[in-house]
Amino acid sequence: MGRRNTVKTCFGPSKLLSWNMVFAVTMLPMCLGCDQTEQRDRPPVVTLVSPAVARAGTQVTISGRHFGIGGPRDGVFIGLQSVPIEIWSNTDIVVRLDIAAIGHRLLVVQTDGHTSTPTPIEILPAESPLN
Questions:
Q1: Domains in the chain, please, with CATH?
Q2: Apex 122 CA angle, 120 and 128, nearest 5
Q3: DSSP 2
Q4: What region does 58 belong to: left with phi over 0, alpha with psi -120 to 50, or beta?
Q5: Tell me: the pLDDT tens digits for 4-55?
Q6: How confident is the model over 75-131, as pLDDT tens digits?
Q7: Of 2, 17, 42, 114, which is the most exposed, with the fewest CB atoms less than 10 Å away?
Q8: Distances in Å between the alpha carbon of 96 and those of 49, 55, 83?
Q9: Contact 64, 47 (CB under 8 A)
C-alpha cells in the first residue's frame, strides 16, 4: 500500500496547527522587521500631490512611497511650517492646509531623518462664507 500524504501537526493529528503554520508565524515578525528597516533607510518619495492647487483649510493627499508608519520625527512641511497630519500610511498621507502660507510653495515629507525632494503646491486663500 502506498504511503498517504499527511501534514504533521504540533499537537497530534486532531489539531489544526501544522508545521507550516508554525514556520509562518515564527518568520512573519522577522520579515516585517526587515521591511521596516529597509523603509527607514530610504528617503520618502512624493509621486503626487492632489489637488496640486488647494484652498487653505482643505485636505490634500500626498501619494508616494517609503513614508513608513509615521513616527514622532516624521512630518509634512510647507516652507518651514509643519502641516497637521490627518492620515499617515506608507504610501499616502492626508494633511489639512490650515496655514497662512498663501501662494506657490514647496511641500516636503520628512521621515526618520530623511527628506523628500520638494514638490510644488499652490495654496489659495480660504473661501469666505456667504452672507
A1: 45-124 (2.60.40.10)
A2: 160
A3: P
A4: beta
A5: 554 444 444 444 444 444 434 344 444 444 444 455 689 999 999 999 999 9
A6: 999 988 899 999 999 999 999 998 667 888 999 999 988 999 999 999 999 886 664
A7: 2
A8: 13, 10, 7
A9: yes
